[in-house]
Amino acid sequence: MRHAGGTRLLIDVIGVQDPARVTMLQNWVEEAARATRLPSGRYPLESATVEVREIASRDPSPVPWGQTNRRDGVSVQLYVRSDATLEQLRADWTAVHEFAHLAHPYLGERGRWMAEGLASYHQNLLRARAGLLPPEDAWRRLDAGFRRGEASRATGALATLGRRRGATMRVYWAGAAYWLEMDLALRRDHGTSLPKVLDGYARCCLDGLAHVEPEAFARELDRIAGTDLFARRHRDYASMDAFPSLDASYRALGIERERDGLRFVQDDPRAVDLRHAMTASDTTE
């Protein structure tokens, strides 16, 4: 059992006989979960369970599969390759992605782009904030995801795509673009941040088993932030039939795309400060 800010996480390693490996897996999970703590120092939910199972797999990923379940209590399930080393596990994003899902309620198929977008947006930035990934690497990995989303040929309004075959990259990364835009606007113009707003939501309203309509989720985040950002841009994104432009967000961050990578502008102090703030820890120990 791991405790943080009055919340708890039960880590259960199932079917592993070697005590040393059980301890290693528990420590890895705890480190990944710690990266997703909110600014107040708590986990998003008052209580959640993590189940780790080893599998024999030819998949090159050390964590071939992860999922968040919301039946009979909230649990994160992580399927780990039986020969995965600690170094490989720490370099993988899957656990942080799944833990990031604990910060939002179930949003249904119409809100899948918001849910997967939030986890995709956070999976590398949170690792940078926890010191698990160099900040510039986090931005490059986020951009690589955006490029996969831009390459998607899936058509139709974003809110209608759900689990449609071939739409995954657009759903995940268009959603991530929404949360990047929200985080930037909150930090630049409203004296707060997305982690702080999600922290407020966790303390007042979050029920991991509840089904909340995506519009209602956006309105509640606006109430906490004192803005109309989330609901207004939710309407725009939900109806988009193309990948959103990243130009304004990248300009604010002082990030320029090159053919196969990124260039980080250093002569704009406001952009540099914003970029650094978004990969720096804001969690109260």
Describe the structure concisely:
The chain has 285 residues and is α/β, with parallel strands linked by helices. Helix content is 49%, strand content 13%. It has two domains: 2-103, Zincin-like, CATH 3.30.2010; 112-277, no CATH class.
Task: Write up what this structure looks like.
It is a single chain. The model has no long low-confidence stretch (mean pLDDT 95). The relative contact order is 0.13. The chain has helices at residues 19-35, 86-90, 94-100, 112-129, 135-151, 158-161, 168-189, 194-204, 214-225, 229-239, 247-253, 269-277, and strands spanning 2-4, 7-14, 47-55, 65-69, 75-81, 255-257, 262-264. It is globular, with a radius of gyration of 18 Å. It has 285 residues and is α/β, with parallel strands linked by helices. The strands form 2 sheets. It has a 5-stranded mixed sheet, with helices on one face. The longest helix has 22 residues, at 168-189. It has 2 domains: 2-103, 2-Layer Sandwich (Zincin-like); 112-277, no CATH class.
State the secondary-structure class: alpha/beta
Low-confidence stretches: none
Count, helices: 12
The topology string of helices and strands comes to: EEHEEEHHHHHHHHHHEEH
User: What's the quaternary structure here?
Assistant: single chain
**Averaged pLDDT, please?**
95
Main sheet: strand order = 1-2-3-5-4
Overall domain count: 2
Q: Into which percent range does the helicity of residues fall?
A: 40-55%
Tell me the total number of β-strands: 7
Largest sheet: 5 strands, mixed
The termini sit apart by 18 Å
Task: Classify the beta-strand content into a percent band.
Answer: 5-15%
Please state the CA-atom Rg, rounded to the nearest Å. 18 Å
Shape: globular
